[in-house]
Design goal:
Elements: H1 2-5, H2 18-27, E1 32-33, H3 36-43, E2 57-58, H4 63-76, E3 80-83, E4 100-103, E5 110-114, E6 119-123, H5 128-137, H6 154-160, H7 167-170, H8 173-176, E7 177-183, E8 189-192, H9 206-209, E9 218-225, E10 232-240, H10 243-257, E11 261-268, H11 269-279, E12 290-298, H12 301-317, E13 323-327, H13 330-341, H14 343-348, E14 352-359, H15 365-376, E15 382-388, E16 393-400, H16 405-411, H17 414-421, H18 446-459
Parallel strand pairs: 2-4, 3-4
Antiparallel strand pairs: 1-2, 5-6, 6-9, 7-8, 7-9, 10-12, 10-13, 11-12, 11-15, 14-16, 15-16
Helix pairs in contact: 10-12
This protein binds flavin-adenine dinucleotide, D-malate (MLT) and zinc ion.
Flavin-adenine dinucleotide (FAD) binds next to β3, α6 and β9.
């Protein structure tokens, strides 16, 4: 159990009683799960590294039902764990003890889409990929994309402020989310579900809930600005001889591809070995120390191809890139993206994964990987680096046959100290969840943490929403 490994004490919340179950059953008949076997997958995280022991999962369909549940839980002092697609990578989406799991799985209705403004309004439990498929028929796309798209919910994306593969082009959810409907801990409904590009009337409250990881309120509906579906997409998968060439290719590409650049991702050869070995994917280019994916999305294929071809000529003749392949058809594009997107999955085949998601000045990001490799030597099975290079976001992952406390102590807090010395972020996009909340001080000053704790106390005075997550409690 998570509580044993992490030595955490249960807060004095009430335990779910038969009377509570009857209340929930009356409120949402047939949508209260209590069977221990059925609850198992909801009690364990995607990485299978943290596990709670909730005995109840609720599946509301409406905002009103969530409001009733929270009003009741707040009165009864029952703790609640909001859950979307349960793809969280920092242990935020599963209970630590017996918190009630409040799933958004049935809140999956599209409310409206405006083809003039490109604004989508939908319930929080819509699966990202389903939203994208719906929009594609109308010649639009979602402004974010990530490998968990087939499972993650838009509410979960908002709650974690997920970044993903195209943040470089379409920006963060802090810009594209225009409005939210949120249910607060006491059950009150905050309707800020506006669809306006501009609205400077008072504080922008929705920002407080974006990235708050279910600790301040339950996101029930989202209004989001969606871009047009690009008419021409090209993807280049390129091999680079060293990290300095990866960086120089990036600056070249920003200059030469400019407005059509939609993704710049990198992975090292260790990652390539893992996706080849575990998932039987094929490396389409000559073996290289690093690989990059350069994607363009534009409105004129002739123009885009000409630009891309000039860029490729330039990086090949200047030896920044040693080999490459290009795709413009859907099938090959997906095949090339899989090499990058499925690294997360390949890593889990190795055993236990220690996952770090770091923002650093871009020229520093691979130094952390090489430094960790030297420091850990043979005590780690693998030390790999990949990520959203265009956003200065490194995914440093370390694997071992199984969990080892001594290996954890060799990695942490060293990795956070290293990050902090360059004023980096110890969580660029995955959040703090359960696993990283104690390290917030490496990226935020004490005054900021205190203010966050004050917000939490104001919005959730009993602390029933996702307890043990995101913020250290004042005494910790
Ligand atoms: P969950 O995992 O269910 O929950 C995440 C957190 O949000 C939890 O704290 C939960 O309590 C809270 N929460 C969920 N729904 C709500 C709600 N409606 N209201 C309030 N709180 C809520 N992240 C990135 O940023 N970029 C990536 O590229 C990326 N790639 C990934 C690839 C894979 C293979 C996987 C497994 C994960 C990846 N992630 C990535 C992690 C990322 O956080 C999630 O995939 C996604 O944003 C979480 O959505 P979810 O619906 O699964 O939320
Ligand atoms: C990614 O970019 O692939 C995701 O953030 C998941 C991960 O870090 O493994
Ligand atoms: Zn990522």
């Amino acid at each position: 159990l998570t509580s044993e490994r992490y030595q955490v004490q249960r807060f004095p919340f009430a335990h779910v009683s038969d009377r509570d179950l009857s209340f929930f059953e009356r409120l949402m008949p047939g949508r209260v799960m209590t069977d221990a076997d059925e609850l198992k997958p909801f009690n364990v995280d995607w990485l299978k590294t943290v596990r709670g022991c909730s005995k109840v999962l609720l599946k509301p369909r409406t905002t009103m039902e969530i409001s009733e549940v929270l009003r009741y839980c707040s009165e009864r002092n029952l703790a609640v764990n909001p859950q979307g697609g349960n793809t969280c990578l920092v242990g935020g989406s599963v209970p630590v003890f017996d918190e009630i799991i409040l799933s958004t799985a049935l809140m999956n209705q599209i409310i409206s889409f405006d083809t003039v403004s490109g604004i989508l309004v939908c319930q929080a439990g819509c699966i990202l990929e389903n939203l994208n498929q719906y929009l594609e028929q109308l010649d639009f796309i979602m402004p974010l994309d990530l490998a968990a798209k087939g499972s993650c919910h838009i509410g979960g994306n908002v709650a974690t402020n997920a970044g993903g593969l195209r943040l470089l082009r379409y920006g963060s959810l802090r810009g594209t989310v225009l409005g939210l409907e949120v249910v607060l801990a006491d059950g009150s409904i905050l309707n800020c579900l506006t669809s306006l590009r501009k609205d400077n009337t008072g504080y922008d409250l929705k920002q407080l809930f974006i990235g708050s990881e279910g600790t301040l309120g339950i996101v029930t509906a989202v209004s989001i600005l969606c871009p047009r579906k690009p008419k021409a997409v090209n993807l280049a998968f390129l091999g680079c001889p060293g990290f300095s060439q990866v960086l120089r290719t990036f600056t070249t590409c920003k200059g030469m591809l400019g407005e059509i650049l939609s993704a710049y991702e990198f992975m090292d050869n260790e990652c390539m070995k893992l996706v080849k070995g575990h998932l039987k994917l094929v490396n389409p280019v000559a073996e290289s120390p690093f690989y990059i994916l350069v994607e363009t999305s534009g409105s004129n294929s002739v123009h885009d191809e000409e630009k891309l071809s000039n860029f490729l000529d330039h990086v090949m003749t200047s030896n920044l890139v040693t080999d490459g392949t290009l795709a413009s058809d859907d099938k090959k594009i997906k095949m090339l993206w899989a090499l990058r997107e499925r690294i997360t999955e390949a890593l889990t085949c190795e055993g236990y994964v220690y996952k770090y998601d770091i923002s650093l000045p871009v020229e520093k990001i691979y130094d952390l990987v090489t430094d960790m490799r030297t420091k850990l030597g043979r005590s780690a099975k693998n030390v790999v680096g990949y990520g959203h290079l265009g956003d200065g976001n490194l995914h440093l992952n370390i694997t071992a046959e199984s969990y080892s406390h001594s290996l954890l102590e060799a990695i942490e807090p060293y990795v956070y100290e290293w990050t902090s010395q360059y004023r980096g972020s110890i969580s660029a996009e995955h959040g703090l969840g359960f696993k990283k909340k104690h390290f917030i001080h490496y990226s935020k000053p004490q005054e900021a943490v205190l203010l966050m704790q004050q917000f939490k106390a104001m919005l959730d005075p009993k602390g029933i929403l996702n307890p043990y997550k995101t913020l250290p409690v004042k005494s910790e």
